[in-house]
Design goal:
By secondary structure, the protein is an alpha/beta fold. The chain is built from 17 helices and eleven strands. It folds into two domains: 116 residues, no CATH class; 296 residues, Vaccinia Virus protein VP39 (Rossmann fold), CATH 3.40.50. The longest helix is centred in the C-terminal third of the chain and has 19 residues. It comes from Streptomyces ovatisporus.
Length: 439
Amino acid sequence: MTDVAPRLVALAERVLEEPLPIRVRAWDGSEAGPPGAPVLRIRHRRALRRILWSPGELGLARAWVAGELDVDGELYDLLSGLAGLLWEKDEGGSPERRVLALARDPDIRAAARELLSLGGLLPPPAPPREEKRRRFGARHTPGRDRQAVRHHYDVGNDFYELVLGPSMVYSCAYWEPGSPGRTPTLEDAQRAKLDLVCRKLALGPDRRLLDVGCGWGSLVLHAAREYGVSAVGITLSHEQATYARKRVAEEGLADRVEIRVQDYRDVSDGPYEAISSIGMAEHVGRERYLQYANGLYSLLKPGGRLLNHQIARRPLQDESAYQVDDFIEAYVFPDGELAPLALTAGVLEEAGFEVRDVESLREHYALTLRAWVANLEGAFARAAALTSPGRARVWRLYMAASALAFERNRIGINQILAVKTPVSGDSGLPLRTREWLGG
């Protein structure tokens, strides 16, 4: 009998109380759902057991990483179809809460029994090995931060070269209009972003730059090569540091660029004229934001500039209710946290900074993520060989879902330019704002 897919679709619509916007193809060859809709392929009944034991996002993610769920066609289309069910419901309408709320309904209990019969009564499958195991102790201590950062970044520089391209910049690019007849490439956009940061910081030969969370060294290299600065880049990843030092040596910039494996809390060799923090503050944690801001403030000379480039989430009525997505916490950025823009700006001001400019790059990050997904999908077998099939699937899902989140305005990304304005009140910025735009 080939009836698994129709039964699953009927069960899903019963629990969700609305039509399922995707088509399902089950391991028995059956299909059900709207004709022409994106197709979710359930390769193994084990996927159902994962969802039964972890309803909602985490169970689905584990099945995806394990290869028990797949998509026929475009992943973006499938995620768009599921977005309204998984991510864009109010809290009372989330799948987990809805299942719990309906648990006493006899029809729902019957549906759960039917799902058990389809998935099997065996114990829950072990999570895929790519999942970060449960961590104990206080969050955002130096030791725990090192473990979290290395889980994400120490997966092989060859893998990151494949995904990020030659620029090796793992943050939002800046997509400027191309010249007539030429569309900007990812490399063009990343170069434009590095240059934008350098101009905002007013870098020059008389300046000393600290890049907090320097990654593979792209910004400090660009700043030293194009603007003549002396630069220090810090990272917690040994793999990133080794790669960055090799690039510095190959470009003959060892006299102007230093790469350290160092926690931002341990930097003590200020003052600097400029500090960049590009995609690093997401790892800091809400309980450490003020410590982070105070530390950067203390490392700047009076009149020095900070460029804080950070993903932002939408504010909540009750900020204490904020929780990181289960998939992100388990597979992507352990202990990572997003803050609303106003919270970040407020903490910088509390530390003493004068916030002078805020620029949203939300649409730019969506374009960047789509370029990274294209790189990954174009060489998926190679990516899986360099890490693991599960890790490559984590990245494909994470980047595609993130692209849609930026496109749908669920999250944003902002560059905040702040100044350690001296007592005299002279910020060092001209009356004409955004002088870095030129013209």
